[in-house]
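From: lab user (bench 3)
To: helpdesk
Subject: output format question, protein + pyridoxal-5'-phosphate

Hello, I'm new to running complex predictions and I'm not sure whether the block I got back is the full result or only part of it. Here's what I submitted:
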Amino acid sequence: MRSREISTIRNLLKKEDVRQRETICLIASENYISQNVKEALSSNIINKYAEGIPYKRHYPGCMIADKLEEYGEKLAKKLFKTDEANLQPYSGSIANLIAFKAILKKGDIVLAMHPYDGGHSTHATKYNISGQIYKTFFYRVNRDGLIDYDIIRRSAKKTRPTLIIAGSSFYPQEINYKSFYEIAKEVGAYFLADIAHPAGLIAANLHNSPAEYADIITSTTHKTLRGPRGGLIMFKSKFKRAVSEALYPGVQGGPLLNVIAAKAIAFAEALDESFIKYQRMVVHNTMFLCQLLKELGFKLYTGGSTNHLIIIDLKPVGINASQIEKELESINITSNALPVPGRDGKTADGLRIGTAAITTLGYQECDLQGIAEILYYIIIKREIDRASKIQKSIIRRVKNY
Ligand SMILES: Cc1ncc(COP(=O)(O)O)c(C=O)c1O
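Helpdesk reply: Thanks, we reran it on our side. This is the complete output you should expect:
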């Protein structure tokens, strides 16, 4: 046994535990999984190979895997009210690639949200392999920073895409999936909704769902949905064969059955009344934080938020968001610097903060007040020591809850 090496790794994992305990996580795409999800992740089913779909595997010994995956699919379909679900995608990025492969041919045209405005890099941008396979046009937000369905309609009529994508990594408002569907229908395009960020809000019926409208829905399972890190695809029944073939052998190999079990547990948890309460609290905390930030003089992109994330516009303050991100990290607060949508995408002039993770830990209004003050002391007053003291008092208070 290489015990020295193993203890090095164990020590690093312990240090990460401490880091997480001592850090205020404002990263909008992170969350904390439950004990039940954690238990499933460390189960022995990880030892099993199960290429293929339930009851049609390329390996023997899959009788339990078949039942487990089928049950997980059933829970996903119940939660999101979709015809079909596949829990095998390793991640949200891979889920997108699988979805594209299932419905597009090489060279097909895709219309997606511009990456400067929040479109994900895997939405056929030039930074991703998908952008090299398909030809992409992008729609931008309007002058108010909002998704404008007339702009998208005009763009769709001009570019005649085979696929239109809705979905963003930093849009703080609800997306109208019906409007996307109508536009796609008008131009004869498929419609894909990537709900990686608002999945939890949609599952809790707090935001409208694309289930009725989208040909394919992709998602991650670890952001607002609060499951293990991973991807998910849901689709109309007519795409069942195309999706399973695009998945294996098209893009992936053997599924991670422990992660599938953990996803199934997260879906079961999301079907519980307590999850709806949690999502309501996420939105409440976001709106409360928006109000506090506005009172402190901050400008917020789109004027606020109706989901789990806020973008503070730092342009009026004249400080680069990457600097603020680093300063916050130095006092154990994590957040993301990014360009404010609607601009040239060259400057990190926005700070993205989210409430999904802190709401899981039970942060209350007094803690949000503290977070708003920290941002004020760091960004406006430039008093890092004072901000650090507030950070420590929040961490102490949250431990005592
Ligand atoms: C909208 C959107 N789609 C896809 C992804 C990719 O997910 P993953 O990191 O699991 O590959 C993300 C991740 O942030 C995302 O925000």
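A quick orientation on your result: The longest helix spans residues 273-295. Let us know if anything else is unclear.
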